[in-house]
Structure prediction request, 149 residues.
Amino acid sequence: MYRNSEGYADPTAGQAIGNVMKEYRIERKRVWRRQHEMKTRPKAYIASRYAGDRTANAADAAMACRYAASKGMMPVASHLMYPAMGFDDSDPGQRELCCMFGLALLALCDEVWCFTREGIVSEGMEQEISEAKRLHIPIRYFKIEEAEA
Prediction:
């Protein structure tokens, strides 16, 4: 029984506090479940073209990431991350460094999802596919048009 500051029984205040605590516990469980779901989502490394028409190819990669997320995956797209950090894809040294970073991320993923437009697989994608095969990571192939739908 809840007692007020003067020591008298106060069932109304006790009920209100109980309701607030119940709502708090429900919300905490919901937040915990959501955090746990995000931690346990399988990671999909997104392989798609970047070089060439970078603007269009980055848009395709972002679309592929949204598609993977809609299918319950946690997308990882290194070719979207590193250019956004200021790495220059046209500089061979920086490109090589970013490719190395990307392959390290690929090794942490559960699957590799390759997205092609018009069936074109770039040199960078070939490298990622080769690494996935070497690491025995499952590879799935998609046409970018599937993600557009």
Observations:
- The chain has two domains: 1-40, 41-148.
- The chain has a mean pLDDT of 88.
- Residues 41-148 form a domain with the Rossmann fold fold (CATH 3.40.50).
